[in-house]
Amino acid sequence: MPNINRRTLLGGAAATTVLAAAATHAQTDMMKAMPDLKGKSILITGTSSGFGRLAAEDYARKGAKVFATMRNLPRAEAAELEAIAAAEDLDLYVIEIDVTDDAQVASGVAEAEKIAGGAIDVLINNAGISTAGPVEIQDMEATKLLFDTNVFGPQRLMRAVLPAMRAAKSGQIFNVTSQLGRVIVPSYGQYSPTKFALEAMSEQIAYELVPHNIDVTIIEPGGYPTEIWANANALTQKLLERADAKHLGGYTALIEQMRSGSGGGGSTDPMDVPNAMAEIISMPAGTRPLRKEVHPGPKPQIAINEVSAKVQVGWLGESGYGPWIKAVNNV
């Protein structure tokens, strides 16, 4: 099988049907390879729990230099990670970063780059929050917090790591969105709007970073039993406490359900997400997918992702942006 790299396709021959097919098979084979993270420096946001915590431990055990970031230090979760790193002699550093804080993002990334001795190899924008309920009852406090965390947070981190990544002409960025970044379930508040926005921003920057040999992958998990559900319930109860009756009155049944609080995610294994990202990290630069749907059950966004890629290539594939569009969509 020839070594197909989407960057090399930009430098010469057009992508023929045969080459495209070969690239697809090569990508499938590479995704099945055992992840090799030795020597990689990986910065992860939101490592106090969930996907971020699991990824931080797993990647350090696989030989990566991990920068596990979280807000509100000192805290028990940070101490636990540091104790694990010490006990197992892991190359793991806990750094304080609140993704909504410009200064903490800048200083945290600078600290990680100093320890790494240069550019971060992999950025994983994992931190995220949610509230429940109809859009009408989402006041500006809730709306701003969700957008600041789920959209502006990843933008802050990308801007912080990209100058060094571009200078190194390499890098990988993961932005964790959701199935609900491509499909809609009513009464999930501003969660879907923020994840739709992150999907769009991620795809746009993926095109723009092609000349710099930096890959961007959007991870789209389905429901998993992580702490996001409990955190969402807490934020939702605060929202209900300050909500105006004139907005609550139109959604009696939904509000009753919101007040009861609920878990979610079923019995799926949250390690699916770190495992998927580890496999993608181990793939050669330029062959990594733009999107990766992760869930053992239904993945309704797949059809949308396929149509989206086809439309982008059909619309701009032969324009001046064509090489970028084709490279990212592996055409």
Topology record:
Elements: H1 6-11, H2 17-32, E1 41-44, H3 50-61, E2 65-70, H4 76-88, E3 92-96, H5 102-116, E4 122-125, H6 140-168, E5 171-176, H7 191-208, E6 214-221, H8 228-242, H9 245-248, H10 252-260, H11 272-281, E7 291-294, H12 301-316, H13 322-328
Parallel strand pairs: 1-2, 1-4, 2-3, 4-5, 5-6, 6-7
Helix pairs in contact: 3-4, 3-11, 5-6, 6-7
CATH architecture grouping: 3-Layer(aba) Sandwich
What share of residues is helical? 40-55%
* CATH class wording: Alpha Beta
Number of E-state strands: 7
Low-confidence stretches: 1-31
Beta strand % = 5-15%
Sheet of most strands: 7 strands, parallel
CATH topology: Rossmann fold
Task: State the gist of this model.
With 331 residues, the protein is α/β, with parallel strands linked by helices. The chain is built from 13 helices and seven strands.
Question: What would you note in describing this structure?
Answer:
The protein has helices spanning 6-11, 17-32, 50-61, 76-88, 102-116, 140-168, 191-208, 228-242, 245-248, 252-260, 272-281, 301-316, 322-328; strands at 41-44, 65-70, 92-96, 122-125, 171-176, 214-221, 291-294. The chain is an alpha/beta fold. The protein has a seven-stranded parallel sheet, with helices on both faces. The radius of gyration is 20 Å and the shape is globular. Residues 1-31 have low confidence and may be disordered.
